[in-house]
Amino acid sequence: MPIADKIAERIRNGGPISIAAFMTEAMFDPMEGYYATKNPIGAGEDFITAPAISQMFGELIGLWSAQVWMDMGQPKSFQLVELGPGTGQMMSDIVRAGRAIPGFLEAAQITLIEASAALKMVQGQTLTPMGVQASWVNRIENVPAGPAIILGNEFLDCLPVRQAVKQGDRWNERLVGLNEDGGFQFVMGPALGVEADLIPQRLRDLPDGTLVEFRPGDQQVVEALANRFADQPGRALFIDYGPASSEPGDTFQAIRQHQKTDPLDAPGTADLTARVDFEQLTHFAGTAGLEASGPVSQGTFLKALGIEMRAATLLQAKPDQKGRIARQLMRLIEPDQMGELFQVVTLSTPGLPKPPGFTANG
Ligand code: SAH
User: CA-CA distance, 327 to 210, in Å (whole number)?
Assistant: First the structure.
């Protein structure tokens, strides 16, 4: 049964559903979900991400990870974990760059957390020929024990988001229901209960009618990290799109073939995301006992890690690709491209040295 029909039936039987539930069905239905059967990432597909733009991105994350491993005291064995690895491109660039660091890859146990069966296969096809022996698990709680470096690029933005609208001293949830023709439409639902605690503090006193988003999935990730890092040293790095401090507004969006489209139209055929709230993320982390660094903008982070020098070295090696490398660099760091829209944070066991890339000189 097409996903739209399944969701419509669920709404007819049980009433309107949260945007989070709509997203989960549309993206991860095991038969028809957006991610269930295909790889949507790449120039000819639906959307493109930093690792697909340039090898420099993953290489720098690889060197960043190696420095963090050293800052942890070079454990003989540690978990190198990626959340939502997509095509596996970033991990393959991490491994290529990591070969330059003695002992780093020998110590790394690579564990991938991926919900999509189709993408697991693509990840295997990318990594196996490089001699990488990766394992897959379904959730952070199932990552084998040990010190851990956990990476997620454009992972949090796919986690389910919910929306609410302020009315007096209540927050009514914005839900997905059906219109008279059986199509999907947004409807106002009942007031939130305890979930209202997830609404960012900064937005609570805004006037009536204000629409806010809150992200229960991010909070679950933070709690899983906090549980793990309480007795095993660890540092997680997240790179994603969203503002450094909480802002109101509807950012639930669908992307198909690189164009924005109606998020309620034809579920399962477009990528659904909403911006990450980095202020709320670091707030959750602090409450859970983690130490946060950032957010800093992606441009600042990559420059602090030396992306301009890396581009210059690549240019020398491949002078015929000058224009291409320059364009890739600009796309990753320029403020009007990904440089300012994307932010970077780390969430860590308290007391580790400050992570590289979070000060002007790296
Ligand atoms: N990091 C990659 C892919 C980003 S797309 C890149 O930068 O190119 C988001 C990825 O997260 C996909 O691999 C998707 O299948 C995965 N994903 C989304 N939600 C997930 C969840 N709850 N558990 C595991 N993987 C998830």
Answer: 39
Distance of CA 80 to the CA centre of its chain: 16
pLDDT digits (tens, 9 = 90+) for 145-200: 999 999 999 999 999 999 999 999 899 999 999 999 999 999 999 999 999 999 99
Question: Is 68 touching ligand 1 by the criterion CB < 6 Å?
Answer: no
Residue nearest to atom 15 of ligand 1 (CA): 116
Ligand 1 atom having least distance to the Cα of 152? 1
List the domains of the chain with CATH numbers. Answer: 33-159+215-242+277-348 (3.40.50.150)
Residue 19 near residue 161 (C-beta atoms within 8 A): yes
- What are the φ and ψ backbone dihedral angles of 360, each rounded to 5 degrees? -55, -35
Q: Could you tell which of 27, 114, 122 is best to mutate to test the pocket of ligand 1, judged by most ligand atoms within 8 Å of the CB? A: 114
Beta carbons of 92 and 126 less than 8 angstroms apart: yes
Q: Mean pLDDT in the chain?
A: 95
What pLDDT, on the 0 to 100 scale, is given for residue 362? 52
Instruction: Please tell me the distance between residue 4's alpha carbon and the centre of ligand 1 in angstroms.
Output: 22
Ligand 1 and 155: CB distance under 6 A: yes
Rounded Cα gap, residues 201 and 291, in angstroms:
20
pLDDT surpasses 70 at 360: no
- 254-280 pLDDT per residue, tens: 999 999 999 999 999 999 999 999 999
The Cβ of residue 169 has, within 10 Å, a number of other Cβ atoms equal to 8
Angstrom distance (rounded) from CA 344 to CA 298: 6
Burial class (CB in 10 A: 0-12, 13-18, 19+), 16: buried
Q: What is the pTM of this model?
A: 0.97
